[in-house]
Every structure is written in structure tokens, then in C-alpha cells.
Amino acid sequence: MAQIEYKDLLDAGVHFGHLTRKWDPRMASYIFMEKNGIHIIDLNKTLASLEQAQGFIKSIVRSGKKVMFVATKKQAQEIVSEEAKRLKMPFVTERWLGGMLTNFSTIRKSLKKLQNIERMLADEQTASNMAKRERLMLDRDRIKLTRLLGGVADMSRIPAALFVVDIKREHLAISEAKRLGIPVVAMVDTNSNPEQVDIAIPANDDAYKSVSLITLAIGKAIEEGILERKQDKEAEALKEAEEAKKAADMKAEAAAQKEAAKAEAAKPEAVAETPATEAASAEEEAPKVKRARKTTPASEKVEVEAPSADKAGEKEA
User: Fold this and answer.
1) Which residues contact 45 (CB under 8 A, 6 or more apart)?
2) Which of 108, 192, 213, 281 is the most buried (most CB within 10 A)?
3) Which residue has the higher pLDDT, 194 or 265?
4) What phi, psi does 162 have (nearest 5°)?
5) 67-70 and 161-165: which strand pairing?
6) Rounded distance, CA 216 to CA 222, Å?
7) Angle at 163 between CA 6 and CA 22, to 5 degrees
8) Which CATH number fits domain 102-143: 3.30.479, 2.60.450, 1.10.287, 3.20.20?
9) Element spanning 301, H or E
10) In 3D, which of 88, 142, 144 has the Cα closest to residue 116?
């Protein structure tokens, strides 16, 4: 996360508050001292609050939700709109339309009307068939809607959090967010009530450098949240691929074991068949041997016995 140092806050003039006669007593805990009729903000508390806000915003973006930027004062419009466009987050830098959050369905109709007008004007054939006055009226409507709703044109649902510059000026946005339970992170000056928002960043909300520094710090937190979400998705996809591969390997191993078991089961049957066939062949050969013995001629027997008689004569001699 981008680390902002004490010196950066001093250089940007974040510590300058409003005149002492315009202060809000509920900001007393964030005020360091009074000098030349101006309250000086405690920058240690600014750093702590900014770090808390960055962590909170980062966790929201990491979960895949959107953060809306709200800043309608002139010195904040440019930097806020540029940062929100870079991060592809919704933003409001012109007038806050009542019901932009609480009556989002009506805002969605206006966005649909803007898309239809842009489609009609982009189509050359349709535009050429229109009267000049009608085309001019549509172009004026397009410019007006783009100015008011251009920052939320891609917003399909209500944002998960708001980042606000100057809560006194943006009281309508904060009241709508509170009604819907949407957390608000805001730059709070010494003339404002910090209890109206969830995370108050005590800072000078009038100086361009101060607004730019805090806005860029919040933008860095959002950028890191988006990057971590991308990494989480990649890690999850890798994990799923590994699990799928592991499941396929286990399946193949189980199939191999099954085939081996079948082969083992078939082997004893073959072994058992071999003695049985040998016994059957032996039984078949036994009668043949008996028949051969019965059919042996008598002359063969005499020839076999004659030598034994000769041997007996020799013995007697």
C-alpha cells in the first residue's frame, strides 16, 4: 500500500483547517492547535485515519465491489474524475441528483435513454432522416445527460461504499448512503461533523493539493485491491485446475487398479483348470495302456522268458 509520510501532508497543506469561529466542536479530537485564528489539524490522526480508510476500501474492492467517488466542488472535480476513470469506478462531479442511490431504478431509465440517444445519433441513416431541430434537441439531451450521469453510465448496481470530498456540500449523498446502509469514507474539515460518516479523514478539503494527495492515496488502495483480486482469481483457477488434474489421475489410477484386479481374478481360474485337464488326460490314457498290455502276443512273452532259461542252464553247468 502507498505510504504517505508526514512531510507530504505538510507540503500539501492538509493540516490547515477553517477559521476558529466556523469550527464544529465535534472535531475537537482531531484539532492539534489554533494559530492566527485558524485551527491546525493533527496530522498524526490524519495518517492513522487514512491508513484505516485505505485498508477498508482495499477490502471492498478486493471482494469485487465498486466504490463511488463524490466531489462536486470545482477544485476537486478534475482530480476525482481522472482518478475514477483510471480505476473504472463510478463518480459524480457535477450536481448530485436526488435519488441517485435511493431511487436508482429511475436513474437507470435515464441511463437507458442516454444509450438510446447515442445509438440514434451514431447511426448515420437514422440521423439523416431526422429534422435538424429534432437532431439538435437530441444532441442537447445527450450532452446534459452525459454531464450529469456520465460518471455512472457503466454502474449496473448500487456501490458498496462512497468516497466523499467535503461532507457539508455532499450532505444529500451522505443521507442517501446512510438510509441504504452504505459505508462512507470522507475528507472532513474542521467545520464538519465527523460523526456523519463511517471513516473520517481529517484534512483540508478546500486546497487542490490536499484533495489530490488524499484522493490519489485512496486510488492507490483501490488499484492494489483490484490487483489482489486478479491474483486471487488466478490462484483459484490454478487450484481448480490442479484439483481437476488430481481427480483425473485418481480416476485413471482407480481404473488401472480395477483392471489389475480383474486380471488377478482371471489368473487362479486358469491355474485351477490346468490340473483338471491333466487328470482328465491321464484318465483317458489309462484304458489305452491296459488295452495295449492285453493285446501283447504270446511269442513276445516266450522270447522274453527264453533268455532266463538259458541263464538257468548256464548256472547248472
Assistant:
1) 29, 30, 202
2) 192
3) 194
4) -120, 140
5) parallel
6) 10
7) 70
8) 1.10.287
9) helix 298-316
10) 142
**Nearest-angstrom CA–CA distance, 58 and 60:** 5
**Distance (Å, whole) CA 140 – CA 99:** 23
pLDDT in tens, 89-116: 999 998 899 889 999 888 899 899 998 9
**81 grid coordinates:** 474524475
d(CA 37, CA 251): 79
Give kind and range of the element (H or E) at residue 303.
Answer: helix 298-316
Q: Are 102 and 179 in contact (CB under 8 A)?
A: yes
Helix residue spans in 13-103 (DSSP H): 43-62, 74-87
Residue with cell 483480486: 229
Cα–Cα distance, 140 to 30 (Å, whole number) = 46
User: Are the beta carbons of 41 and 202 closer than 8 angstroms?
Assistant: yes
CA distance 160 to 146: 23
Listed in order, strand segments (DSSP E) in the chain are 16-19, 31-35, 38-41, 67-70, 91-92, 161-165, 184-188, 199-202
- The CATH class given to the 6-101+158-235 domain equals alpha beta
For the cut 70, the answer to whether the pLDDT of residue 269 exceeds it is no
Distance between CA 82 and CA 91 in Å, rounded? 10
Burial readout 157-182 (b: 16 or more C-beta within 10 A, e: otherwise): ebbbbbbbbbbebbebbbebbeeeeb
Identity (one letter) of the amino acid at 265? A
Q: Can you say whether the dihedral through the CA atoms of 182, 185, 187, 190 is positive or negative? A: positive
Question: For the chain, which residues make up each domain, given as ranges?
Answer: 6-101+158-235, 102-143
Of 164-168, 259-263, 275-279, minimum mean pLDDT range: 275-279
Among candidates 44, 53, 310, which has minimal Cα distance to 165? 53
pLDDT band at 168 (very low <50, low <70, confident <90, very high): very high
Per-residue cell: 95: 450536481
